[in-house]
Amino acid sequence: MAGPYTGFGGGPGASVADRVAAWLVTALVSTKFSLLFSFLFGYSFVLQERSAERAGAAFAPRHLRRVIALLGIGLAHAVLLYPGDILTLYAALALVLYGLRGLSPRAALRLAAGLVLGLAAVLLAYGVLTVAYTAPLTPQAYAPYVADTVDAYRGGAGSVPAEHVRELPSAFGTALLYAPGKLAAFLAGLAAARVGLVERRGRDRAWLWRVVVRGLPVGLAGGVVSACCCAGRPLDSRWFPVGEAVAVLTGPALAASYACGLLLVLDAVRPAAARVLAAAGRMALTHYLSQSLVLAFVFTGYGLGLYDRLGTAVVLLGCVLLYVAQLAAVARLMARTRYGPAELLLRAVTRGTATRGRPEPVSGSSRPSDGVRRVP
To answer: How many CB atoms lie within 10 A of CB 235?
Structure first.
């Protein structure tokens, strides 16, 4: 949302700090946390299925209403705030997941592995051909192609949604390309929920440590290779698909290490910190949409129009400060209500009834399951 030079690690005038920031984000962050959210989406699918069963309600109509709500929110988000929206893809894949819900945990994991390997193979093949038969593209050479985009985002409020609509075909095409990876994470979450992984292992420190110790080296090594290919240094832009292939293969290891490491940290800190993060998890959709709203105000003609005017390091610092502010806000909000506004809307549509926003205390002893149960 901040500029058009993601694949180069910064624009023509990027500083060393900007390039280092872009490299670190690619190595340590990009794709890893989206995998976690996708995993939790698949996990919550099973929990919602069980919730409908306990309530004596048919799951299929509930799920369809949820999909329609996600699609509507996602389309509005894509047109008004950010064309790279993920909710529309989640809505489409949620229908696929419903069709695959009868798979055994082992079959779901096998299909997930096949999807990951297939996507990585496609990206790697494309990357090898790109390296072999194309010339590198520099930020300076790329600038004329994005000049209209820069002007549109810096223009008036009316030019922003028009630019978003123009970018939607490309954004949807990219989403379709990476859909197998998201579906694989959905299936992994589905399998984990079927066997009660979080409930059985969420407080097993020895098991959590094993995941961290085994997954972290693989994930970090893959992150380094991916950053070398995707962040513009030391390899040029032709290597981007190769780096993406490596990220697809090794990203799950780093994502799992992050998740297990976070559970270990939460088990060691005061319950108040766990309550804040649990509350943030219950408002994940509101967080996602509000981040887009703030960033759209900062970078587009809706507000400050700083698109392509701030370096990666400054943008990264701003994102960290924004998340800290969101945590502070959610801590205050959750004292008054159980769910955020976006979650209330989604639950109301899903259940076909209004949902009251009563506050609900989050105990430290129940945080692993709470963190999953309330993913929107």
So the answer is: 18
pLDDT tens column, 8-26:
777 777 889 999 999 999 9
* 148, burial (CB in 10 Å: exposed 0-12, middle 13-18, buried 19+): exposed
Rounded Cα gap, residues 371 and 376, in angstroms:
11
pLDDT at 356: 56
Peptide bond into 4 cis (omega under 30): no
Residue 1 in any domain: the answer is no
**Would residue 248 count as lying in a domain?**
yes
Tokens standing for residue 361: 């205390």
Q: Which domain holds residue 359?
A: 6-373
Mean pLDDT, the chain, integer: 89
When divided into structural domains, the chain yields a total of 1
H helix or E strand, kind and range, residue 222: helix 205-230
Please list the alpha-helical segments (H only) found in 135-204. Answer: 139-154, 159-194, 197-201
Q: State both tokens at 368.
A: 């692993």
Task: Give a yes or no: residue 305 inside a domain.
Answer: yes
Element of type H or E holding 102: none
